[in-house]
């Protein structure tokens, strides 16, 4: 396993926290997998899958898991601190500016544009993660079941998980058994 210090985790997660606004998962994947190569795409997807079923914000769970994997409790604290300190400071400054200038049409237009960029980044990350899934195409059945349950039947997250989880576990078990 690669060695990553708490300082490296703090700096890496600070960059992640400051890179995205309202959705840093695309930046987390890019930093952790593509730039720093701390994890492979497969390892990242597996850890993210666990983090998504644990209560709390996915990115925070991811910071704790990755930090603790490489540097124990100190690493988890460093990753979470790096993820939070910059954005909290930035939000406080932006809140003060919005309080003062939020009524301006230009400011409202900028905020709409930023939200569109966030949606695009999250979609791009989803497609990158899905590309990794081509190694075991049967998992796309889980994606399809999840999509249909959430969008066609408008089921709540708990029901979607209860429906898709057994199928996903069964397919993953079959993948593990393959030579």
Number of helices: 7
Output the helix-strand order.
HHHHHHH
Kindly report how far apart the N and C termini lie: 24 Å
Write down the overall mean pLDDT.
Answer: 88
> Helix proportion of residues, in percent?
over 70%
Question: What would the principal axes of the Cα set say about the shape?
Answer: globular
Describe this structure in words.
The protein has 179 residues and is mainly alpha-helical. The protein has a domain at 6-104. The protein is 80% helix and 0% strand. It has seven helices and no strands. The protein is globular. The two termini are 24 Å apart. The model has no long low-confidence stretch (mean pLDDT 88).
Give keywords.
about 180 residues; mainly alpha; 7 helices
Task: Describe the SSE topology.
Elements: H1 6-19, H2 25-35, H3 41-53, H4 58-101, H5 105-132, H6 140-152, H7 157-177
How would you summarize what this structure contains?
This protein has 179 residues and is mostly helical. It is 80% helix and 0% strand.
């Amino acid at each position: 396993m690669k060695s990553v210090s708490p300082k490296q985790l703090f700096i890496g997660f600070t960059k992640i926290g400051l890179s995205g606004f309202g959705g840093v998962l695309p930046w987390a994947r890019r930093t952790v997998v593509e730039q720093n190569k701390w994890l492979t795409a497969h390892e990242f997807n597996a850890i993210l899958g666990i983090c998504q079923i644990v209560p709390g914000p996915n990115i925070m769970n991811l910071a704790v898991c990755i930090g603790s994997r490489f540097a124990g409790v100190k690493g988890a604290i460093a990753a979470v601190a790096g993820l939070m300190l910059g954005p909290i400071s930035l939000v406080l400054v932006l809140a003060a500016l919005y309080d003062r200038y939020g009524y301006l049409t230009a400011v409202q237009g900028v905020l709409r544009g930023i939200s569109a960029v966030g949606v695009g980044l999250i979609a791009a990350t989803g497609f990158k993660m899905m590309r990794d899934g081509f190694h075991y195409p049967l998992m796309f059945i889980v994606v399809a079941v999840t999509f249909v349950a959430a969008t066609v039947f408008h089921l709540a997250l708990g029901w979607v998980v209860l429906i898709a989880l057994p199928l996903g576990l069964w397919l993953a078990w079959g993948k593990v058994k393959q030579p």
